[in-house]
Write a structure and sequence with these properties.
- The chain is built from no helices and ten strands.
- By secondary structure, the chain is mainly beta.
- The protein has one domain.
- The strands form three sheets. Strands 2-1-5-6 form a four-stranded antiparallel β-sheet, with no helix packed on it.
- β8 and β9 form a beta hairpin.
Length: 103
């Protein structure tokens, strides 16, 4: 059984017991959260697709940790113009564990 959820402007395919890193969600470590923007639920051959969301479908998850991704280095340069710009960015994330999918 798996589901496709939308959170943080991105879509993720999730299944039971899976851990994934999503955009930051408010909450303490160990807290239970409910993700209600479910786009698709598949259980074997049975497939429920929403227009755009599946009515009444939710995904239960637990917050495992909060953290920051690896640094992404941005380097811009104009040749022959003595222009160089260096910049770095680290995006915050919340790691969650999927506990249940209900359709």
């Amino acid at each position: 059984m798996y589901a496709v959820i939308k959170t943080g402007g991105k879509q993720h395919r999730v299944s039971l017991g899976e851990t994934l890193k999503i955009e930051t969600v408010e909450g303490d470590v160990g807290a239970a959260i409910v993700l209600d923007k479910v786009l698709l639920v598949a259980d074997g051959d049975k497939l429920s697709m929403g227009k755009p969301l599946v009515a009444g479908a939710t995904v239960q998850a637990t917050i495992v940790s909060h953290g920051r991704h690896d640094k992404v280095r941005i380097f811009k340069m104009r040749r022959r113009k003595h222009y160089q710009k260096r910049q770095g960015h680290r995006q915050n994330y919340t790691e969650i564990r999927i506990d249940g999918i209900s359709a």
